[in-house]
Design goal:
The complex is a heterodimer of chains A (564) and B (132).
Chain A: H1 3-82, H2 85-89, H3 91-105, E1 109-116, E2 121-125, H4 139-145, E3 151-153, E4 166-174, E5 177-185, H5 187-195, E6 204-209, H6 227-233, E7 244-249, E8 255-263, E9 268-275, H7 276-279, H8 281-368, H9 371-374, H10 379-408, E10 414-417, H11 419-436, E11 439-444, E12 452-455, H12 456-473, E13 479-488, E14 491-498, H13 505-508, H14 528-538, E15 542-548, E16 552-560
Parallel strand pairs in A: 11-13
Antiparallel strand pairs in A: 1-2, 1-5, 3-4, 4-5, 6-9, 7-8, 8-9, 10-12, 13-14, 14-16, 15-16
Chain B: E1 13-18, H1 22-33, E2 37-42, H2 45-54, E3 59-63, H3 71-81, E4 87-91, H4 96-104, E5 109-112, H5 117-131
Parallel strand pairs in B: 1-2, 1-3, 3-4, 4-5
Helix pairs in contact in B: 2-3
Chain lengths: 564, 132
């Protein structure tokens, strides 16, 4: 492929790439930037909203549980405060009190017991056979008997009955006697208080004691990585008054939200946890929708940019080609003008010697008329030769006159032109070449052709091009070129028909394209016919081609007559 | 010797022939001589002006394109000096426009080189007849 064509293709590809890149960058960058900023702000806002909601939820339930524990403590404190050891030691009386509590509060209280200062249970009301049980070594008993508080709420433990429960113990001292009223709180009931804290599929709550042991059941499996709980338990007393939220990823990469709040004076920790994917589901859905919108926007921008870039590059290419054609046309016109100047110079230089030559021939004729030469036997031959010199001198004169006439018509200013005369001159100029190519040029002109007002040099260029193309096509085998003129309505029609090899139909519709040529490399630029097309279009005319392979090619040039 | 060659000097036409092509001037002068014209040859505008100061001429034939002083300029000077003298313009340039310019400056007519002697003689006689 021609280097210039390769360069043009490379240039066009580079231009396309640059325009596309810049237009896409300029359009997409602000959209992505704004989307990122909005999503970032939305993320912060959404996280704050979720955290606030969870804090409120956990705070409310902590308060509920604390209230429950305080109320149950109050119930037992009322019993211990209002009734004497003797009354309370009466199992029948104690059973009545238990019944009343169960009637008022449901199955919250499992049993009641009265324990003397030695840890011996002196009275018991409840479903287990625990009368006379000894709690002297029990941890809860020791803590309840300690002087720092009048009551004690234990952690959940199995104890003598072998089922999970916790107790509320109130210590009383009357006279020299110290005794304890103990109530067992139903674990199932207490557990249900915590279990009901549920949000969605993965949000649940549970209670841990200071040592990290579960005080209620966890609905779901808690994370195998216990580090968030351990971190919460390390808080000091002041920090334990706050509600803490952390987001933590486990070993599998799954992240969860952990909300911790302390109750029972910091002995227990209410933990709420939920998978982040669920807690922030709405946010993630919004992000997904935003990403889809941004991607669709990008695709739209990209496709629009590609379409516009293609259009722009096609337009620029067209402009470039038109510019190139115009330059070529200017060069061609310039060449014609140079040829014109050259022709004028040659005509002048030739005319003088020819004039002398013809003059000298005339002088010989004059001299031959003198008597002494009349008898010469070669007189007839002398006269024939001299006549021939006159004829050829006249021929030279005609040739130089045609050259000069051509030279005068190299301007591009529109002027009244008789097409017949213009073509006749071009035919004369091409006659020598036609003779060498064994081509006969026949003209068939309509008489009294009206003038058209166009640039003579440009019209010359068009017909010279058509005649030269026809001569090129018939250079090897010879043939005929028939040039006819006629009028068709308000148009002048010139038909240039040759009997050359014809143009294959596959390329016929491309012959007016710039740079399209069927001539061998180096012989044709592929611009001749496209320039002709441009010139005729500029004259508001038309140029058409008809061709049959093996028969010949016919060009029809239609040029409008002046309107007035 | 032809009949016209035998004309007495007083009846022969006196013509100033101006052209920078010596070969052309010589052959035309010779041929004119055989046709009853005494052609004084001038190879430039200045030669022509020198000749015209020395003698009177019935007519001048001037080439338009000359090296030193072109035919138009010479024509203008001749027309100022001897307005009644007819001047025929010859042009090897072949430019009708230049010849038409010559007509504007008072040339009788123009002929393009190479021209036939008969044609030139016809123009000369026409010009002289018009002048009389």
């Amino acid at each position: 492929m021609d280097n210039s064509i390769v360069e043009e293709i490379d240039h066009r590809a580079a231009l396309k790439k640059n325009v596309l890149l810049w237009s896409v960058c300029i359009a997409i960058t602000p959209m992505i930037l704004v989307s990122c900023i909005i999503l970032y702000q939305f993320r912060i806002s959404y996280h704050q909203r979720v955290n606030a909601h969870l804090e409120e939820l956990v705070a409310k339930h902590r308060q509920d549980i604390d209230t429950f524990l305080k109320e149950r403590l109050g119930n037992i404190q009322v019993l211990a405060g209002n009734f004497s050891f003797e009354n309370m030691s009466n199992e029948r009386f104690l059973q009545e009190r238990l019944n009343i509590l169960q009637q008022n509060y449901g199955p919250v209280f499992v049993d009641l017991g009265v324990i003397n200062f030695e840890g011996f249970q002196v009275a018991y009301a409840g479903p287990y056979k625990l009368k006379h049980a000894s709690y002297s070594d029990a941890d809860w008993f020791k803590k309840a008997m300690a002087n720092n508080s009048e009551y004690y709420k234990s952690d959940v433990f199995l104890g003598l009955r072998g089922v999970p429960h916790f107790i509320i113990a109130v210590r009383r001292t009357s006279g020299d006697k110290t005794w304890i009223v103990r109530a067992t709180i139903d674990f199932v009931y207490f557990n249900s208080l915590v279990e009901k804290i549920r949000i969605g599929e993965t949000g649940f709550a549970f209670i841990l004691n200071n040592e990290g042991k579960f005080q209620t059941h966890a609905v779901h499996d808690v994370a195998p990585d216990k580090s968030p709980y351990r971190d919460f338990l390390k808080y000091n007393n002041a920090e334990k008054k706050e509600i803490h939220i952390v987001e933590h990823a486990d070993a599998s990469g799954s992240t969860s939200l952990y909300v911790a709040s302390f109750l029972k004076h910091g002995d227990w920790m209410l933990v709420y946890q939920q998978k982040s994917s669920e807690a922030f589901a709405d946010y993630r859905r919004a992000v997904s929708i935003a990403i889809v919108i941004v991607i669709l926007g990008c695709v739209l921008i990209l496709s629009t940019a590609i379409i516009l870039t293609n259009k722009l590059v096609r337009l620029l290419t067209k402009i470039d080609r038109e510019k190139e054609m115009m330059n070529e046309q200017i060069v061609e016109t310039g060449k014609l003008a140079s040829i014109g100047e050259l022709a004028a110079g040659i005509a002048h230089e030739i005319n003088n010697p020819v004039a002398i030559m013809v003059g000298e021939a005339g002088w010989i004729e004059d001299l031959l008329e003198e008597e002494e030469f009349q008898a010469s036997e070669n007189m007839n031959e002398f006269k024939r030769a001299l006549k021939q010199i006159h004829i050829q001198g006249k021929r030279c004169k005609e040739i130089t006159h045609k050259l000069l006439s051509f030279a005068r018509k190299t301007g591009s200013r529109p002027q009244d032109i008789n097409v017949n005369e213009l073509i006749e001159e071009l035919v004369d100029l091409s006659a020598q070449r036609a003779k060498f190519s064994n081509v006969t040029i026949v003209t068939d002109f309509k008489e009294d052709m009206p003038s058209i007002c166009v640039s003579q040099s440009e019209l010359q260029q068009v017909f010279l091009n058509l005649i030269n193309n026809a001569l090129d096509a018939m250079e090897k085998d010879g043939g005929d070129i028939r040039i006819s003129t006629r009028t068709d309505g308000n148009r002048v029609v010139v038909v240039v028909a040759d009997t050359g090899p014809g143009i294959p139909s596959a390329v016929l519709n491309r012959i007016f394209d710039p740079f399209f040529t069927t001539k061998p490399v180096g012989k044709g630029t592929g611009l001749g016919l496209s320039i002709c097309y441009g010139i005729i279009k500029k004259m508001r005319g038309e140029i058409e081609v008809q061709s049959t392979v093996g028969v010949g090619t016919t060009f029809l040039v239609k040029i409008p007559l002046p309107e007035d | 010797m032809t009949e016209k060659e035998n004309l007495t000097p007083s009846t022969r036409i006196k013509l100033l022939l101006v052209d920078d092509e010596e070969g052309f001037v010589n052959v035309i002068a010779n041929r004119m001589s055989k046709r009853g014209i005494d052609a004084t040859k001038a190879l430039s505008g200045s030669d022509a002006l020198k000749a015209i100061r020395k003698q009177d001429f019935d007519l001048a034939v001037v080439d338009l394109k000359m090296q030193e002083m072109d035919g138009i300029e010479l024509l203008r000077i001749l027309k100022k000096m001897i307005p009644e003298m007819p001047v025929i313009v010859l042009t090897g340039h072949g430019s009708e426009r230049a010849a038409e310019d010559g007509m504007e400056y008072g040339a009788y007519d123009y002929l393009t080189k190479p021209c036939e002697m008969d044609e030139l003689m016809e123009k000369i006689h026409e010009a002289l007849a018009r002048g009389r």
